[in-house]
Amino acid sequence: MSILVIAEHDNASIVGATLHTVTAAQQIGGDIDLLIAGNGCSVAAQAAAQISGVNRVLLADDISLEGLLAENVANLVVSLAGNYSHVLTAATTFGKNFMPRAAALLDVSQISEISEVISADTFVRPVYAGNAMAKVQSSDRIKLITVRITKFDAAAETGGSATIEAVDAVADSGLSRFVGVSSSESERVELTSAAIVISGGRGMQNGENFHMLESVADKLGAAVGASRAAVDAGFVPNDYQVGQTGKVIAPDLYIAVGISGAIQHLAGMKDSKTIVAINKDSEAPIFQVADYGLVADLFVAVPELDNAL
Amino acid sequence: MKVLVGVKRVLDPQVKARVKADKSGIDLTNAKMTMNPFCENAVEEAIRLREAGTVEEVVALSIGAAKSEETLRNALALGADRAILVLTEDALEPLAIAKIIKAIVEKENPDLVLVGKQAIDDECNQTGQMVSALLGWPQATFASKLEIVDGTAQVTREVDSGLETINVNMPAVISADLRLNEPRYASLPNVMKAKRKPLEKIDISDLGLDTANRMTTLEVMEPPARASGVMVENVAELVEKLRNEAKVI
Fold first, then answer.
1. How many alpha carbons fall within 13 Å on the CB side of residue A126?
2. How far apart are CA B134 and CA B95, in angstroms?
3. Chain B nearest CA to A269, separation (Å)
4. Which of A26, A47, A289, B26 is most buried as measured by Cβ atoms within 10 A of its Cβ?
5. Which segments of A7-115 are extended strands (E)?
6. Looking at residue B204, what is its pLDDT?
7. What digits encode the pLDDT tens for the residues A101-145?
8. Is any Cβ of chain B less than 8 angstroms from the Cβ of A228?
């Protein structure tokens, strides 16, 4: 068996999600190739070659891959997929965008967000916001899979010595154009890779009050997240959102502040090692998943927590 | 311009899914069903485009059992002009759903296909991407803003790093994220009117497509339960426990 992992990168380095995906590939077993696709991404390919367990790095460096438009990435993946038994990528917004397109072009089903590898054709994946786990067996000749990264450890970033081979990019489809991306600037650690996350919900009342969480986060080296309610209310940008429709994370410590704990939020954080809930409503569902619950007014408790650290 | 909008009937998002004792799936007997939340955003966007004069006709499409007519009547009550129901008793995979949508697109010739980015039951997040692939159209997934200008669609997409903007040719497939809009509620007069709007039923066998599933669900299990936690009295006790018991700070 041979496995192609589509890497995510920022042209200079490999995004952490890819390391978790490599581990999932190792559990399936077989030679692992990593595809680096982009425009001006040769430095990322060199970083990829260091990842433990990678056999070859395929480098598709072309102007047509600027902005990584789904049409062009999918066509590239399709051009390579015939050589592989499995094609994997992380279930990030990057992976979720192009992978189903590639699957349809190959006339195969995609196995979305696997959380466990049972065998080369059988996987477990969460459904219904994580309230059930489905064990599924695929009969497709090539298995196209997205990986729920919180369920697999990261492969070592170093220790590997893969060869780098250039592959031809495909022509620009001409169907779509990349205009730009706006990211919220943050000095803090990234949400999906943080060991500690402190998140605020509707109970925060406004965006200004998130400074209280940021102060605690700075002391703990934590990232700041939010519930959908807080993002919908405009307190913080969308990339803060933890939940079924936002980011799925599993830090060592998750502190939920003023978050009631809707099913859709729990889907994004309930695999965290230790969960703390601070909420003034003792009946809030968040307490059902919390290891430590504190019924308190967050505007009193959070400054106290800040002082105690 | 004409929009085809896909809607799926799912377990109500407020209801906790219960795994069947024989592990064959989720028990949906007498469960409250509703339109998939992301599909509500897709329907709302289609109706707003018509209200703005950009679109002349909104056609709602659902694929499923006869009860999916309820979901389509809801879409009609919200403002869709007519509906198509492709009848099947099988729980089809997104690839099969995409093939069916493609067949309906070839019949209806819409300028835009709007769908929800994922269904909250199987959580595949595939159908929109697959439809656009099969049609050879561009895709714009996870849309939180849509503007149609000079025959192209300018779409803001919710991505992990923030907000990405792309511009796609039309016809296109666009998948809705939750912040694309705030879906309206159907008024009672519109619910009554929806009962008289046209709804075409097509049996899946009449489409002559290969819709066989490629995956077999071997079993559906309960997720591992979390050990029950403790309530602490105050912040001092919380910090003490995090330091000395959980050892996470």
1. 23
2. 10
3. 12
4. A289
5. 31-38, 56-61, 86-90, 110-114
6. 98
7. 999 999 999 999 999 999 999 999 999 999 999 999 999 999 999
8. yes
Tell me if A291 and B230 make a contact (CB, 8 A cut-off): yes
CA distance B107 to B105: 5
* Residue A88 · residue B159 · CB < 8 Å: no
Instruction: Name the token pair of A158.
Output: 């170093």
Nearest-CB residue to A294 (from B118, B139, B238): B238
Residues near B205 by beta carbon (within 8 Å), at least 6 away in sequence: none
A179–B165 CB contact, under 8 Å: yes
Give Cα separations from B110 to A255, B104, B107 (angstroms). Answer: 47, 9, 9
User: Pick from B7, B47, B14: which is nearest to B183 by CA?
Assistant: B47
ipTM value of the model? Answer: 0.97
Q: For B160-178, how does the pLDDT look when each residue is reduced to its tens digit (9 = 90+)?
A: 999 999 999 999 999 999 9
Closest residue of A to B156, CA-based? A181
For position A187, what pLDDT does the model report? 77
Longest pairwise C-alpha distance within chain A:
59
Residues of chain A in contact with residue B118, where contact means CB-CB under 8 angstroms, are 245
Buried b / exposed e across A76-94, counting CB within 10 Å, b at 16+?
Answer: bbbbbbeebbbbbbbbbbb
Question: Is the model's pLDDT at A97 over the cut of 90?
Answer: yes
Pairwise CA distance, residues B73 & B95, whole Å: 25
pTM of the shown model: 0.96
- Cα separation, B166 vs A185, in Å, equals 21
- Residue A91 in contact with residue A20, Cβ under 8 Å? no
DSSP for B132-156, please give it: HHHHT--EEEEEEEEEEETTEEEEE
Nearest to B218 by CA among A99, A88, A139, A87: A139
Question: Which positions 147-166 of B are in contact with A (Cβ < 8 Å)?
Answer: 154, 157-166
